[in-house]
Design brief:
It is globular, with a radius of gyration of 17 Å. The protein contains eleven helices and six strands. The longest helix has 17 residues. Helices cover 39% and strands 15% of the residues. It is α+β, with helices and mostly antiparallel strands and 275 residues long. Strand 4 and strand 5 form a beta hairpin.
Length: 275
């Protein structure tokens, strides 16, 4: 998840029980793809991490602690107009989005989108890495992991790093299994908690109830994918046109901002070379 300061939004995306704040996220996950058995579901309901602030320094700190080379960093995207997108260094390999997932209009759209894809199907790259969110308030952590895991070669992610070892252990496992593995990934948890304490706002409790949610957009085999740990599957939004950054901007406008024009809770970052 993430937190808010005057300039930064707090995103927590916690799993939980039936309707209401934190509880609704896990209800979504259970509706879509319930993990193995009742004992695992029960344990996951009690696993919460301190949320990450929607702040490029914080995501960069966590990413570098778990294996991202110092030559890469997250940076703010100040808006989706062309001149503001042009301020982002070229070659972005991931675009994160923070939004208020609790709003009825977004929850309705999520259900409609899922039904449409289940009815018509979609192409998913076999090399895409995706994990489900069963750890409360870990959406910022998961968005960062998705960003790195799907660009491991381009980033030069070390196989001996905490994330490199986690990805090796996760190889061949289902998104549900990997999401459950995260609860026991001590190195990743320690790094996430340490980064969460360094934000511009006081770190909330691990089980704090906040409605903002982190997701990420990445490119695989020429298509742009939305990776959201609370959705049953990745969302293929079609071919990348020109660059991932500009394509992600179009997808965010169409599928988020235009769906919820009254919301002011949108915050974006890009993962770029830090020259």
């Amino acid at each position: 998840g993430a937190r808010a300061s005057i300039d930064f939004q707090v995103a927590t995306c916690p799993p939980g029980l039936p309707p209401g704040g934190r509880e609704r996220e896990m209800a979504d996950v259970e509706d879509e793809c319930t993990p193995c058995d009742a004992s695992i579901r029960e344990r996951m309901k009690n696993v919460h991490w301190v949320p990450l602030e929607s702040n490029p320094e914080m995501l960069t700190d966590f990413a570098q602690q778990v294996g991202m080379p110092s030559s890469w960093a997250f940076t703010d995207i100040f808006g989706l107009d062309e001149e503001l997108l042009a301020m982002v260094p070229p070659g972005a390999v991931a675009v994160t989005l923070l939004f208020d997932s609790s709003r009825d209009v977004m929850r309705k759209w999520k259900a409609e989108q899922k039904a449409a894809i289940q009815a018509s199907g979609q192409k998913i790259s076999p090399s895409l890495k995706h994990l489900r969110q069963y750890v409360g308030n870990a959406c910022g952590t998961i968005a960062t992991i998705h960003s790195l895991a799907n660009n491991a070669e381009a980033l030069g992610l070390s196989a001996d790093s905490p994330l490199g070892k986690f990805l090796a252990a996760a190889d061949g496992k289902t998104p549900d299994d990997i999401g459950i593995m995260l609860a026991d990934a001590k190195d990743l948890h320690t790094a996430s908690e340490a980064s969460a304490q360094g934000g511009q706002t006081a770190a909330p409790e691990a089980d704090a109830d906040v409605n903002n949610h982190f997701i990420v957009f990445v490119e695989k085999d020429g298509d742009i994918y939305e990776l959201d740990g609370t959705k049953a599957f990745p969302i293929n939004h079609g071919a990348v046109e020109g660059s991932l950054l500009f394509t992600a901007a179009k997808v965010i406008k169409k599928n988020f901002m235009e769906k919820d024009p009254d919301s002011m809770h949108f915050n974006m970052m890009a993962l770029v070379k830090d020259d």
